[in-house]
Specification:
about 25% strand; Peptide Deformylase; 5-stranded antiparallel beta sheet; 9 strands; alpha+beta
Length: about 180
Amino acid sequence: MILPVTVYGDPLLRKVTKPIEKNFEGLHELIENMYETMYHSDGVGLAAPQVGLSLRMFIVDATPAATKEEPELADFKKVFINPQIISTSGKPWSFEEGCLSLPHIHEEVLRDEEVVIKYVDENWVEKTETYNGYPARIIQHEYDHLEGILFIDHISQLRKRLLKSKLTAISKGKVNVSYKIKVPK
């Protein structure tokens, strides 16, 4: 089932999320619904707060973005439950990011090249993994959602001021997108 995407202005997007218990009822259905929502919205990642749930979980699937230049994206499809970033390192690099919760806004964001993350997968297998490049960027972006941080929090105050009218329009639902959104009340 395709879920509505929570957009900018909803206080839920600014809250630190709660851990998911192992016996969380409907977890696999939620994961399926999140993937369906992400694919329908042409995203490469989706965090639970973006579908209205204050839960420490996000999904990624960057497989369609794999190229000869970025083969690490092939089969990069994962579920991250109760993740914890252990460290980030490497030379910070800038890349234009977007977000389903901030439709039609794209900004250059500086992020570290490497991330080490500890999490459990959908089968409750604990993992600690290291990612570099674009996968590390996707993870950091989605992890930020679990901490109540949006990618625009990483840009300059001047850029944010320039985006104010667009952000206000999004918060009022005055945005044309091809996917369902949940407008803040």
